[in-house]
Amino acid sequence: xKPLLALLVALPSLAMAELHEVKMLNRNATGAMVFEPDFVAxxxxxxxxxxxxDPGHNAASIAGMLxxxxxxxxxxxxxxxxxxxxxxxLYGVKCSPHVMMxxxxxxxxxxxxxxxxxxxxxxPTRARxxxxxxxxxxxxx
Length: 141
Prior knowledge:
Blueprint: H1 2-16, E1 19-28, E2 31-36, E3 39-42, E4 47-51, E5 60-61, E6 81-84, E7 89-94, E8 104-109, H2 125-140
Parallel strand pairs: 1-4, 3-8
Antiparallel strand pairs: 1-2, 4-6, 5-7, 7-8
């Protein structure tokens, strides 16, 4: 009887969880080597599905850009992967072969502050520039 009770308690939160789809693209209106969208506002329990829309890309977490308690992830090239976000905070995501070209995105889970101070010092220049543009757009809204 206890497993049934646990399931009934969990169902409302599972029903409220959202699926966000992110395309991995060679190009879109904002430029080359991009995630679309490049920013996702999520809640704990939401899932991000990275779609292998164009060939040659992957989605991987960025060291130093994960909230405490969040696990690292890395997809293989041309692989669709899903991650479920449990820990609140900022998640930096990169395409491993194209991070030098600025192929990064940001996921905000909960109400984590959006600050350039959250960016690691060792980011490639184009990745840092793209993150700063993402943060500027989000803080302007």
